[in-house]
Design goal:
- Helices cover about 25% and strands about 25% of the residues.
- It has about 850 residues and is an alpha/beta fold.
- The strands form 10 sheets. It has an 8-stranded parallel barrel with strand order 1-2-3-11-13-15-16-17, surrounded by 7 helices.
- The radius of gyration is 30 Å and the shape is globular.
Length: about 850
């Protein structure tokens, strides 16, 4: 094993990383049909594969008959058994505080359910009248009424308030046709998504302390007590998806206390959306963001701490969650990929960096190559790199579907995501995949993330832009306003964190070299105060396409990177847009993760700003360190990632590069198909083209060898191109590189397993398994489990579940199950002898 000359102890830990860096999985329990035997079986299988723990998630039922209800004593006993068994196996156990998402259920009464404003314009005449204005939906009550001259569609939006007397309004006389605008408030009607049996009901009001406390007492407390707080690492809240919720019964009083004026006379600005109402709309939605933190996030955080567990949350979505709201959590999580934008992983990682939270997780593989069983290990790996490039350093895989062993192959599946389960045909590669991810996760926890730029989030414009009936997703709206600025910064070699006025100032000043304001035309008083304080402390401020503050230097979007060049030298450039980089600074060394995010081989030249005298690469497949010489230039296979470690200290002379390979091409292959038949084949070989179906087959070749013996089995990066296919989900990650095989192969040399081929470049160290004379090489190829998804027995599970329990889900892209699959060996394997050192 090649060892590090730059950071020997760090590199040794990289080879054998600690267990806490292992990927976890979201463990879906479908209704209450899981058993203790299922629990034991699945947790043991996870532990064997190198998975580090579970997040228990309770979702919709699949079996038509359910033995228990969610929250019942028998169900809670199963939760307790799972928590204890996980801990006994050394697995982390996290607990979702409810069923489905967002929090809610049958225990939520109408007054504590999510609330919304409803707007209605009614034409009226010029005569005085007393109007009775009850809400049209159960629970709705009028909260404000307004009058404008002109009929609906003809008035100018200049509404004047009418005084309400309960459900009545006194309308004064006018001069002609008029429009009455009525605002009523009541339950949104939203039901918990993907709920378990017995957990059906409304989503709770996230702006209400009473609603949060009621849910904690009714649902969270029994769940945590059943699991045992001593067995639980964290309680979890999924992404906020509370649709159309923009009201709570005491909102007017809270607004007056926080903003200093009465909102009711101005409420029509939420509907009419005139420019003069921008300040009110910003104040209104800012108040909702305050209430989310004060009445939902903070109480759950306090509740968890009182019980000795941590609170993990995906703090984005609707209600309008701010990035700084993560201060009300112990563990920070995001999701999504896309390094040239601001995915939710970047949003979460930015918060973690400024809150000194060393580990930031991501819900990974949410919409990977679908349907569920189509995703291959290289897809999982390729998307994982995108999360790492956003600053994530812990994977919580989406996910493991808890499936009875007797279920039709390939077992139950969640409606979305990749199926991370031992029922998956490619599972022989799982230990290698999870070990690879564990090493990279651990490496990206060392030192401190380097991001020279702070990117100000344009909340004020986002708040003011929300219109009636829109989702109040502050993450989505504020990051969209940034336009192409994030991509331009990444292309220029800069990394950044997104921040807001409540991000700790000391952290901003310590971590960043400049502040960029983009997508903003207005700033709140709090924004202005914080930015002026940062500028006064010496942080350069650049405003893109806006005159906001005299302290800010103005530039245009096309000129931004040029303006930054005068202030900040790019931290790390790779020389190719497909190759991303993320940088961790150590006390006396630097770590850079370089990842080829595209389907073609690329040569990257790393140009770091930090001076170095020596460098080496670390391979996450085996933990080996390889010294470099000269410029940092790497040949990267499609979707390949490597760690580069640099040091200011000179290292020993690097060995000369290896000489050319001495390949021995393997020929005369025989194939034993899924049906047990054996025949000679010519490569490339696609067994479906020969009328064979199934997920596993074996290729066998014999070869006569003489000294010096080869040491590597190589398929390389050649093969058949990935077939074009329809992808409806924009976040559905698929690796599009040419395939040497589909999807993995277990190599067996002379009767002994030598390892698994699953990644590009497709190579395997055979050690001393070859011998002089005749050798037998087998490649046991495992495809995906998609063919089994076509069976009537498998598909009947989902139709029967809908018939029994209603339409609680829709399987993602199931029409793509019928697309032809392609399994086999697509290139001629070679054996490579030791490469002599170049003179």
């Amino acid at each position: 094993m090649r060892t590090s000359r730059i950071e020997p102890e760090l590199a040794a830990a990289f080879r054998e990383p600690p267990a806490e860096a292992r990927a976890m999985v979201r463990w879906w329990w479908f209704g209450t049909s899981i058993t203790e035997a299922d629990i034991d079986d699945q947790l043991e299988s996870m532990a064997r594969a190198g998975i580090g723990g579970v997040e228990a998630a309770f979702v919709y039922p699949l079996a038509p008959a359910q033995p228990h209800a969610f929250g019942s004593p028998p169900f809670l006993a199963l939760v307790g058994h799972a928590a204890r068994r996980a801990r006994s196996l050394g697995l982390r156990f996290d607990l979702t505080l409810g069923s489905g998402w967002s929090y809610g259920g049958a225990h939520v009464p109408a007054p504590l359910a999510a609330q919304r404003l409803r707007w209605e314009e009614r034409p009226i005449g010029p005569h005085a009248a007393r109007l009775h204005l009850p809400g049209r939906w159960p629970g709705d009550r009028p909260v404000a009424a307004f009058l404008a001259d002109g009929a609906p569609g003809e008035h100018d939006g200049a509404f004047a308030p009418l005084e309400l007397d309960g459900d009545d309004a006194a309308v004064p006389p006018g001069r002609g046709p008029r429009t009455l605008l009525l605002a009523t408030a009541g339950p949104t009607g939203q039901q918990v998504k993907r709920s378990s049996t017995g957990a059906e009901g409304p989503v709770l009001d996230h702006y209400s302390h009473a609603a949060t406390a009621h849910h904690l007492a009714a649902v969270a407390e029994p769940l945590l007590e059943a699991a045992g707080a001593e067995h639980v690492t964290a309680v979890f809240c999924d992404s906020l998806e509370v649709y159309h919720a923009d009201w709570t019964p005491d909102l007017a009083a809270e607004f007056r206390a926080r903003r200093g004026y009465d909102p009711l006379p101005h409420l029509h600005h939420l509907h009419a959306h005139r420019p003069e109402g921008a300040r009110f709309r910003a104040d209104f939605h800012r108040t909702l963001a305050d209430l989310l933190e004060d009445r939902f996030l903070a109480p759950i955080h306090a509740w968890a701490r009182e019980r000795g567990v941590r609170f993990r949350v995906q703090n984005y979505g609707a209600p309008p969650a701010r990035v700084s709201g993560y201060r009300h959590a112990d563990m920070i999580e995001g999701e999504g990929w896309g390094r040239h934008s601001v995915p939710r992983t970047k949003w979460a990682a930015s918060a973690a960096h400024h809150l000194d939270t060393p580990v930031v997780s991501s819900e990974t593989w949410t919409w990977i190559n679908s349907p569920s069983f189509r995703a291959r290990p290289i897809d999982f790996k390729g998307e994982a790199h995108e999360h790492l490039l956003a600053g994530v350093n812990h994977f919580i895989g989406h996910g493991w579907p808890a499936s009875p062993r007797g279920a039709a192959d390939p077992g139950w599946a969640f409606y979305a995501s990749g199926a991370i389960t031992d029922r998956n045909a490619w599972w022989p590669a799982a230990p290698a995949l999870f070990r690879y991810l564990q090493r990279l996760s651990w490496a990206m926890r060392q030192g401190e993330h380097v991001a020279d730029l702070a990117l100000w989030l344009p909340y004020e414009d986002a708040y003011a832009s929300f219109g009636p009936g829109e989702e109040l997703d502050l993450y989505r709206r504020s990051t969209a306003l940034l336009g192409d600025v994030p991509a331009a910064l990444r292309r220029a070699g800069h990394d950044f964190d997104v921040i807001d006025a409540r991000t700790p100032a000391a952290s901003i000043l310590r971590r960043h070299k400049a502040l960029v304001i983009a997508g903003a035309t207005r700033l709140s008083e709090e924004d202005e105060s914080r930015i002026r304080a940062l500028a006064a402390a010496g942080l350069p401020v650049i405003a893109v396409d806006a005159d906001l503050l005299p302290e800010a230097r103005r530039t245009t979007a096309p000129d931004l990177t040029g303006a930054l060049r005068d202030l900040v030298t790019p931290d790390a450039e790779t020389g190719h847009p497909d190759v991303g980089v993320v940088h961790r600074r150590l006390d006396d060394a630097e770590l850079y993760l370089l990842a080829n995010t595209g389907p073609e081989p690329r040569t990257a030249t790393l140009t770091p700003r930090t001076p170095y005298a020596s460098w080496e690469t670390w391979d996450a497949h085996d933990g080996a360190a390889t010294p470099g010489h000269g410029p940092i230039r790497l040949a990267l296979a499609p979707y390949e990632a490597r760690i580069v470690a640099t040091s200011p200290r000179p290292g020993p002379p690097a060995p000369p590069p290896p000489g050319p390979a001495d390949p021995i091409r393997l020929a005369d292959w025989h194939f034993t198909g899924p049906d047990g038949s054996t025949a000679p084949v010519t490569l490339p070989h696609v067994w479906e083209a020969h009328g064979l179906t199934g997920t596993t087959g074996t290729y066998t070749a014999a070869v006569e060898l003489h000294a010096p013996l080869p040491t590597r089995l190589v398929l390389g990066t050649a093969g058949l191109p990935v077939p074009a296919r329809t992808a409806r989900q924009p976040q559905s990650f698929q690796a599009h590189a040419a395939e040497p095989l589909a999807a993995v192969a277990v190599a067996v040399v002379n009767g002994t397993e030598a390892g698994v081929l699953w990644d590009l470049p497709c190579e395997l160290d055979l050690g001393d398994r070859l011998r002089e004379g005749e050798n037998r090489i087998e490649l046991r190829v495992h495809g995906t489990s998609v063919p089994a998804m076509r069976s009537d027995a498998w598909q009947r599970v989902y139709t029967d579940a809908t018939a029994a329990h209603g339409r609680r889900f829709a399987m993602q892209e199931m029409d793509l199950v019928r697309e032809p699959t392609r399994t086999g060996l697509f290139t001629a394997p070679e054996l490579h002898r030791p490469r002599p050192t170049a003179p």
